[in-house]
Amino acid sequence: MSMMKIHGNHRLMGEVTICGAKNSTVALIPATILSDTPVEFDKVPDILDVHNLMLILQSMNVPSEFSDGIFKVNPTNIKESRLPSEAIKKLRASYYFMGALLGRFHRAIVSFPGGDNIGPRPIDQHIRAFEALGADVTEDGDTVYIDATKHGLKGGIIDFEMVSVGATINAILAATKADGVTEIHNVAKEPEIVDIVSFLNSMGAKITGAGTDDIRIEGVKSLSATEIHTVIPDRIEAGTYLALAAAIGDGILVKNVIPEHLKPFTEKLTEMGLKLEINDDSIFVPESGNIHGVQITTEPFPGFATDWQQPITPLLFNADSDSVITDTIYPKRKKHIHELKKMGAIIKVADNNQIIISPSRDLHGAIVSAGEIRAGASLLVAGLMANGETLITHADHILRGYDNVVEKLAGLNANVELLEGNVPSASEA
Ligand SMILES: CC(=O)N[C@H]1[C@@H](OP(=O)(O)OP(=O)(O)OC[C@H]2O[C@@H](n3ccc(=O)[nH]c3=O)[C@H](O)[C@@H]2O)O[C@H](CO)[C@@H](O)[C@@H]1O
Ligand SMILES: C=C(OP(=O)(O)O)C(=O)O
């Protein structure tokens, strides 16, 4: 098991460069199996999810290589095969092989995905999309069987009952290779969806409407990559470093960002009283003075992302009044709270699931456990603010989605080590 040891309460400064978005990358990689040619991506984050996706590709005779942000994959000799359930369970995005295999082979057998334990995460809308395209979907235990070989994969109308990032992308992946036209209504509008569509269109797909509520797809027979696709910057990683900079920075420049994607986040920082310098592709966070408590409600894009709510929480401990967070996407996403309390934080959950964060200026180091990726990010920021040493166990969750995190933090003068080993016996809650 990986652990992170943090010597906290050092002021941080310098520059940090954000890499490609995890939530784009983990859909782009499964999407490559729709291509009839080799594919290359740039700015791919070095995160555990990518390495697990490589194992899944390998099981289908799809070799891939990855170094310095360049990811090359050759799906030309792909074979249908049983996907390794251990790797499938290690990430959420393995569910994109459902849509991608359905597009490629008109059938897919995939076990239920893993990913963060942040409350119920059903896939009924994904199944609704596959059925609208003519597939029969059955479940047996842990495995989902999706089959459109009997009547063919055909364009159709998909009306989502709720906005889902994953279901939108899965519908796009399958419909790209379906026979005829597909209309998808009530889709998610996240920038990562626009990125996937721009990649597919660059290979010859015919998809319009990404970034709006409705997407139209004219199915095509083949796709060929002719250019290197650069993954968009990770707005969640960027938000995490912006929060860190505001909490304990003496001037930090966060580079390679798309400020428009960060608007809901930077607007909250401004409301707190921070004076950000927002440039074309970077944001400078000066040393912050007094900051005020705020109310945050998470919503689908262009709202405040659920994946930001835990990383921003430690910053709110520095405010001069209470803050309230309401997570409408994952109301049970609260694995950070119990652990933050161990560090002296004053934070509680009200009956209506709202999280109340009170000024807590005397955080101290503790042994805490990262229950999921963003809970881990929250503990990391808190550990850097706290007096003394913090040990974060189960840090693999952080490494699922934060590229070169120890090196990036060291570049800001933080003292963080990655350790492998057993959890100290007294530490498990
Ligand atoms: C790999 C990836 O991109 N993960 C992101 C993706 O997850 P993911 O794609 O799993 O999240 P969704 O957008 O699908 O989930 C949104 C909401 O819809 C519900 N729902 C979803 C699908 C479904 O079939 N039925 C259903 O009820 C979910 O329980 C949740 O309450 O979007 C989330 C919401 O922005 C982010 O937190 C995750 O980081
Ligand atoms: C919930 C997240 O990831 P996943 O959907 O991959 O579990 C996240 O990135 O915050």
Describe the secondary-structure layout.
Elements: E1 2-7, E2 12-17, H1 22-31, E3 39-42, H2 48-59, E4 64-67, E5 70-73, H3 85-89, H4 96-105, E6 107-111, H5 124-132, E7 136-140, E8 143-147, E9 157-159, H6 165-176, E10 181-185, H7 191-202, E11 206-208, E12 214-218, E13 229-230, H8 235-248, E14 249-255, H9 263-272, E15 277-278, E16 282-285, E17 295-298, H10 306-316, E18 323-327, H11 335-342, E19 347-349, E20 355-357, E21 367-369, H12 373-385, E22 389-393, H13 396-399, H14 405-410, E23 415-420
Parallel strand pairs: 2-14, 3-13, 9-10, 17-18, 21-22
Antiparallel strand pairs: 1-22, 1-23, 3-5, 4-5, 6-8, 7-8, 10-12, 11-12, 14-16, 15-16, 18-20, 19-20
Family: Belongs to the EPSP synthase family. MurA subfamily.
Main location: cytoplasm
Domain Enolpyruvate transferase: 8-409
